[in-house]
Amino acid sequence: MFEDLDLPRVWPIGTILFNLLFLLIAIPIEGYVYHKRLNFDKKTSIFYAIAVNCFSGVIGWVIFFIIEPLLAAPLKAELISYIFFNSLRASNSQGILIVTTFIIFFATFIMKFFLLRIFVFTLSEDIGKKKEEPQSFPRQSNRFISKINFQDTNLVTTTLIANSLSYTAITAVLLIRNNR
Length: 180
What we know:
This protein is mainly α. It has helices spanning 13-38, 42-67, 73-85, 93-122, 138-178.
């Protein structure tokens, strides 16, 4: 089964390095937003930013490698031309690229939100401790439910702001790169 696997002869070094650059841009920006908006300490916010960006990057590349063989031949040729040579051959490719960019932005936002939510829930310090539950009253349970809803809203807003700022910085780098 694995005897047919070979290392590729051509590597998209530019794409790999730009993906690394994008991580180096996104992690500090998102870590700063997590620190300011979610009141994490700096170490924790950078940890969450690294974890969320690395996991979403890996999931994104896995999805890319699943979808890529299903593309039509002209789209595949455009994709290879863009990845290896940073050029689009067909005139209608720019519209497809813009739509794809919006889809990737919102898919990444949703993925980062759920990853951050999972990380915050599973890595919180209160999970392993047993708490003695005091007598709960309906008013207290309503406060608890509203607090959970507020935290989810705050997490969504924070993730959207962090993702938007990091994508804006990455877009600025891409624009600078293309204007050379």
